[in-house]
Design a protein that fits this description.
The structure is a single chain. By secondary structure, the chain is of the alpha+beta class. The strands form four sheets. The protein has a five-stranded antiparallel beta sheet with strand order 4-3-7-6-5.
């Protein structure tokens, strides 16, 4: 203590790193003590060197681990940020899904309500088709049967099993070729067809062929047969007047077929509706009647003729007034002949009498052509 000491220095190279080792030696030590250390001192120095090397390796490993940990921490922070962003997106998506779910529930309720309406309309339609007295067939665009009413089955000669089959392949109670022509014309944009048909002698009937259009569906063709006797109150009153009139009132189509006859005429000539004059009268009488009909159609003017048709009570005289009707049809009034009627008929057919009547009209200041 308090003595002098010697400072010694030593250079060490460990792991590529150079270290300086300094230590003090007391001055009382003789020079002999400065001789190289015994072997046991060399072992201690080697142990120190090994420990220093371990220390350097440990320090380097620790530095590497720290750097790796920092890298992992950075990656974890980045991953955490991504997870937070993903969580926010999931929350936003969840809100959107909740909104979509509410809309779907609303749409489902609306669809359910519409489905109930469709089912109700379908049920009403089934009842209507089963109870209506109108014989109707609905065709698809390709000519196959879509629906039929109960009344159509005997009228057209079809069955429920025919739904889905082409109407052209079925044998109906109507004129098949004429019906197919009407369907084809109407399906290709032609005007609706309405014409009389003869399926029942006791009830005049008419055929209607028209187009129909459903939403979101191709247009189809509607075929119906209905009684000409289905009329409103005003028409019923007018029909009552016609039937009560003491004259025969009738109408014919362009082919000369009787399509209407009041009760007075029907009582005197049975089975007229649906037949022609040649099917009712003798050839001579029929030729006389049809000749006058042809003149009325060709001239499109009113004509008066004396005719003698044959009824259940034999031959009877009538004054027939004939006039043109639309679609080249013909209407007529047959008045039973009496003395007064003969005088009127003679005047209408006497040219001199006609000229005299026209002169009287002019003298009175009137127009004889009005």
């Amino acid at each position: 203590a308090g003595g002098n000491a010697l400072l010694h220095g030593r250079r060490l190279d460990l792991g590529g790193v150079t270290y300086s080792l300094l230590y003090l030696q007391p001055s009382g030590i003789d020079s002999a003590s400065l001789e190289p250390a015994p072997p046991e001192d060399v072992s201690a120095q080697a142990e120190i060197d090994r420990l220093l090397e371990d220390l350097v390796y440990t320090r380097e490993s620790l530095q590497t681990a720290v750097e790796q940990q920092e890298t992992v921490n950075e990656e974890l922070n980045a991953t955490n940020e991504e997870l937070l962003a993903a969580n926010e997106e999931l929350q936003s998506t969840n809100e959107e899904l909740s909104s979509v779910n509410e809309e779907l529930l609303t749409l489902n309720d609306e669809h359910q309500r519409r489905l109930e309406e469709v089912l109700q309309v379908t049920a009403d339609l089934e009842v209507l088709l089963a109870s209506t007295s109108i014989a109707a067939i609905l065709l698809n665009q390709d000519g196959t049967i879509r629906r039929i009413t109960e009344a159509a089955k005997p009228m057209f000669g079809v069955r429920d099993s025919d739904i889905g089959r082409p109407l052209a392949d079925l044998a109906t109670n109507l004129d098949r070729e004429a019906l197919l022509v009407d369907i084809r014309d109407v399906a290709h944009g032609g005007d609706p067809v309405t014409r009389p048909v003869s399926l029942s002698a006791n009830s005049p009937q008419r055929l209607l062929v028209d187009r129909y259009q459903l939403p979101h569906d191709a247009p189809g063709v509607f075929i119906a047969i209905f009684s000409s006797n289905i009329i409103g109150p005003a028409e019923q009153a007018f029909r009552a007047i016609l039937d009560a009139a003491p004259v025969a009132l009738y109408a014919k189509d362009a082919d000369g077929v009787y399509i209407a006859m009041n009760e007075y005429g029907g009582a005197r000539i049975e089975g007229t509706v649906g037949q022609t004059d040649h099917e009712i009268f003798s050839p001579e009488v029929a030729d006389q009647i049809t000749a006058t009909d042809d003149l009325v159609r060709s001239r499109q003017e009113i004509m008066v003729r004396h005719e003698r048709p044959v009824g259940p009570d034999g031959v009877f005289d009538v004054i027939s007034v004939k006039f043109p009707m639309p679609d080249n049809g013909l209407g007529g009034v047959a008045v039973p002949v009496t003395a007064d009627v003969r005088d009127v008929a003679a005047a209408l057919n006497d040219d001199n009498e006609i000229r005299r009547l026209r002169a009287m009209i002019v003298d009175l200041g009137g127009d004889p052509d009005s």
